[in-house]
């Protein structure tokens, strides 16, 4: 039995050796706890954020936490990617303009790929015009926007507005996610849905992909 509490503490204490030891143990045991481990690591990162806010940790610690999580995702990915074998089509995913955080986006990407999406990952700090342009050129109707900074909310709104200004809003489904996102934010931004949990993200996008009218999105 994997000690997930120990994993949570190890992430919050930036104890890389213990984190990797537990992750290796999970993968050696078949990877069944991979999703639970990701959830616990996310909680550990929340504590890292709290320590940063209290002044106990510095930007260098945030960078180190990011490196640890990137390694964790790399190791757990084969287990997270055990997919359904379905093909759900293509969608765009990125972190919005002004925001460089991509750990959450990369987790969501792994889960969407596992579910059967072909994810066009535009990366971080992506401008509204770039997202609209790729959606238009590639004929993509499902867009996932990630952001963890408070300022990401304004970028998400600018992106939704850019789709409307381009006359593409009606044929586009937009889901937003990340730390500052809530039902209230979703409504103020004008997105179609929001999620904090990758599984909920997958369920919403899967519903959209299955219900889309051929040629419409
Ligand atoms: C690691 C980290 C960094 C790393 C990021 C490395 C990387 N490659 O991403 C680095 C060092 C680069 C960094 C930089 C900064 N950071 Co920082 N960072 C963090 C930290 C500790 C963890 C973030 C994280 O990865 N969480 C774990 C992931 C898994 O969670 P998540 O992103 O929320 O994703 C989940 C869900 O939200 C959802 N989801 C995510 N994306 C999507 C997308 C869709 C479509 C959907 C549906 C769902 C979804 O699914 C994911 C899985 O469950 C947070 C603290 C925190 N509590 O979040 C601070 C935090 C976000 N950072 C903060 C700050 C202040 C900064 C800096 C300004 C610091 C500085 N002075 O330079 C810079 C900003 C740089 C920029 N312009 O973006 C603040 C933000 C404050 C604010 N309210 O705006 C936080 C909250 C810390 C704090 N408490 O003060 N940071």
| Bound ions, cofactors and other small molecules, one mention each | cobalamin
| Major beta sheet, strand line-up | 2-1-3-4-5
Distance between the termini: 45 Å
Relative helix content: 55-70%
Low-confidence stretches: none
Radius of gyration computed on alpha carbons = 18 Å
What is the helix/strand order?
A: HHHHEHEHEHEHEH
Principal-axis shape equals globular
**What is the arithmetic mean of pLDDT?**
92
Report the total helices: 9
- Total count of strands: 5
Structural class: alpha/beta
Q: Mind describing the biggest β-sheet?
A: 5 strands, parallel
Strand content: 5-15%
What does this 3D model show about the protein?
By secondary structure, the chain is α/β, with parallel strands linked by helices. Helix content is 57%, strand content 14%. It has 9 helices and 5 strands, in the order ααααβαβαβαβαβα. A 5-stranded parallel β-sheet has the order 2-1-3-4-5, sandwiched between helices. Helix 8 links the parallel strand 4 (173-177) and strand 5. Helix 1 (4-12) runs antiparallel to helix 2 and helix 1 packs parallel to helix 3. The longest helix has 22 residues, at 59-80. It is globular and about 50 Å long. The termini are far apart. 39% of the residues are buried. The mean pLDDT is 92. It binds cobalamin. Cobalamin is lined by residues 42, 45-46, 48-49, 52-53, 59, 62-63, 65-66, 98-105, 107-108, 144-146, 148-150, 175-179, 195-196, 198, 201. Cobalamin (B12) is lined by residues 42, 45-46, 48-49, 52-53, 59, 62-63, 65-66, 98-105, 107-108, 144-146, 148-150, 175-179, 195-196, 198, 201.
């Amino acid at each position: 039995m994997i000690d997930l509490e120990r994993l949570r503490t190890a992430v919050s204490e930036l104890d890389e050796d213990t984190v990797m030891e537990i992750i290796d143990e999970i993968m050696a045991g078949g990877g069944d706890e991979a999703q639970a481990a990701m959830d616990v690591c996310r909680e550990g990162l929340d504590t890292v954020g709290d320590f940063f806010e209290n002044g106990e940790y510095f930007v260098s610690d945030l960078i180190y936490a990011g490196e640890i999580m990137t390694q964790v995702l790399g190791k757990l990915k084969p287990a997270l990617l055990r997919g359904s074998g379905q093909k759900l089509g293509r969608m765009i995913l990125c972190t919005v303009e002004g925001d460089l955080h991509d750990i959450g986006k990369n987790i969501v990407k792994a889960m969407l790929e596992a579910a059967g999406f072909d994810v066009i990952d535009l990366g971080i700090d992506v401008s509204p015009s770039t997202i609209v342009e790729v959606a238009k050129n590639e004929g993509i109707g499902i867009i996932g926007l990630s952001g963890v900074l408070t300022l990401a909310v304004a970028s998400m709104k600018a992106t939704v507005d850019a789709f409307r200004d381009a006359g593409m809003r009606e044929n586009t489904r937009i889901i937003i996610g990340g730390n500052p996102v809530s039902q209230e934010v979703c409504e103020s931004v004008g997105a179609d849905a929001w999620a904090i949990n990758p599984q909920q993200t997958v369920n919403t996008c899967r519903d959209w992909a299955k219900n889309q009218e051929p040629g419409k999105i």
